[in-house]
Design goal:
alpha+beta, DUF6723
Length: 90
């Protein structure tokens, strides 16, 4: 398995304060079935920790359009940020 280092500058803050303390990368994947899946990478910049995807994370989709898949991945990222701001995992 190849592990890639995330290029996210850590802020060094003790804990996240706002949604600006996270970076969301959203893209989509097209499947042979003609459906689209949202792809999400969520990183907390205070400590550089990758919060999503994690082992066992469910796929985001399928959706009929690329826009729907992208919107769902973005919304999922926003809900994860909201939850982490309330109770940041270490």
């Amino acid at each position: 398995m190849v592990r890639r280092k995330l290029l996210v500058k850590q802020t060094g803050k003790p804990r996240p304060d706002t949604a600006d303390d996270y970076v969301i990368y959203v893209t989509t994947k097209f499947m042979a079935t003609g459906r689209f899946f949202g792809e999400l990478l969520l990183v907390r910049t205070t400590d550089g920790r990758k919060l999503y995807p994690f082992d066992g994370a469910s796929p985001i989709g399928p959706f009929a359009t690329v826009d729907d898949a992208r919107a769902a991945a973005t919304a999922h990222g926003a809900s994860l940020i909201e939850a982490d701001l309330k109770n940041p995992e270490s």
